[in-house]
Design brief:
The protein has about 200 residues and is of the alpha+beta class. The chain is built from four helices and ten strands; from the N terminus they run H-E-E-H-E-E-E-E-H-E-H-E-E-E. It has a ten-stranded mixed sheet. Strand 8 (about 160-170) and strand 9 form a beta hairpin. The longest helix has 27 residues, at about 1-30.
Length: about 200
């Protein structure tokens, strides 16, 4: 009987390991972001220096500290002209990306067709809640990224970041899904809402 008990124990340990790996995989694909409104003086000085020239005639300028798991970043949001911008910086004040809200008609037809095909294949029923055009600071050249973003240039390296409400057999979920300029899928993250509402805009 003892060998059987030992084998059973090993089997249970194996199952727990498999479950742990599965849960870890799901968690790694989740986004649990919290935003805290802060004063401008609490924003990194190097980030303020970079973004200040672009805040002329901007309205509703707000500054935030963001926490997403172990990552800490800073973001400023504002409206300029007819566009709503968000500019994100690392905790050290280095530019990470610039985003602004757009509509479906602002995306090239072929690209949006690719995006729609991906969503239809991967979600039983979905609704696009928000689309942002994204300029990443990949080459660590913040000035050129800012200029391109505020001129609304359609470049090969831009991304489209969508917030999508999806329905399946388990109910509704929200995802942040990123596509490149050709409509190819790059990343999907399930949005996990915080237990309390501390998001201000």
């Amino acid at each position: 009987m003892k060998p059987i008990a030992l084998d059973t124990m090993k089997y249970k340990v194996f199952l727990l390991f498999v479950l742990f790996i599965g849960v870890s995989s799901v968690v790694s694909q989740s986004k649990q972001e919290r935003e805290f409104r802060i004063k401008e003086s609490e924003f990194p000085s190097s980030a303020r220096k970079l973004i200040t020239p672009y805040l002329g005639n901007a309205k509703r300028v707000r500054f935030y500290k963001e926490v997403d798991g172990d990552k800490v970043s800073f973001e400023t949001k504002f409206k300029k002209g007819k566009l709503k911008y968000s500019v994100e910086f690392s905790k050290n004040g280095e530019l990470e990306d610039v985003e602004f809200i757009i509509k479906k008609v602002d995306i090239p037809n072929r690209t949006f067709e690719m995006i729609s095909n991906y969503l239809a294949l991967n979600h039983q029923k979905y609704r696009i809640k928000k689309i942002q055009q994204q300029y990443l600071n990949q080459e660590e050249n913040p000035i050129s990224v800012l200029k391109a973003a505020f001129q609304n240039l359609i470049l090969p390296e831009i991304n489209y970041e969508l917030i999508v409400a999806s329905k399946d057999d388990k109910g509704y979920s929200e995802y942040e899904i990123t596509f490149n300029s050709d409509g190819e899928h790059l990343l999907s993250r399930k949005l996990v809402k915080p237990k309390y509402d501390h998001i201000l805009y």
